[in-house]
Design a protein that fits this description.
InterPro entries: ArsR-like_HTH (IPR011991), HTH_MarR-typ (IPR000835), MarR/SlyA-like (IPR039422), WH-like_DNA-bd_sf (IPR036388), WH_DNA-bd_sf (IPR036390). The chain is mainly alpha-helical. Helix content is about 70%, strand content about 5%. Helix 1 packs across helix 2.
């Protein structure tokens, strides 16, 4: 294959990847909304609950703000909603009684886990036919995407998209 043909093929693949990435992100956002609706939660609250279930132990509202990218005021309102829904409780830090920690309610997190287990069987079936190196490629891609997304979120929140030099991006 000539270098020109290889370049054309690569450009075509990159274009297709861009299109499929947008479809993937939209389908995930719609899936997230459906799960949130099912649990009677806001999609952001659902994602926060997802992140909290990965944390080791109770966290501060400040930590929740950092995990979600919300302001501390918005994170406090999110915790209020999760508390009303029975997914978290506020408790005093045993070491520093002035500090308030947000802890997940184990029974509710177990319910949350059971719901994900019901949904995940189909996800695992998608990957059963893949070789280990293909799975490792997907894991690496997902990790790079999470890191890249964090940078893009910071750019958006920092107003970089409004500047003339924002064209090329990171």
């Amino acid at each position: 294959m000539s270098s020109e043909a290889a370049g054309d093929r690569r450009n075509g693949l990159l274009s297709e990847l861009s299109t499929e990435s947008r479809r993937y992100m939209a389908s995930y956002a719609l899936f997230n909304q459906a799960v949130a609706d099912h649990l009677k939660l806001h999609p952001t609250d659902l994602q926060c609950l997802n992140l909290l279930s990965l944390e080791e132990g109770p966290v501060t509202t400040g930590r929740i703000a950092r995990l979600t990218g919300l302001t501390t005021g918005s994170a406090t309102r999110l915790v209020d909603r999760l508390e009303r829904a029975g997914y978290v409780v506020r408790e005093r830090d045993a070491v520093d009684r002035r500090r308030v920690l947000v802890a997940t309610v184990p029974e509710r997190i177990e319910e949350f886990g059971r719901m994900w287990a019901k949904l995940s069987g189909g996800w695992y079936a998608l990957f059963e036919e893949l070789e280990d190196d293909e799975l490792a490629l997907l894991i690496g891609h997902m990790r790079r995407t999470v890191e890249f997304t964090a940078v893009q979120i910071a750019r958006i929140r920092g107003g970089e998209l409004d500047s003339p030099e924002a064209e090329g991006g990171v």
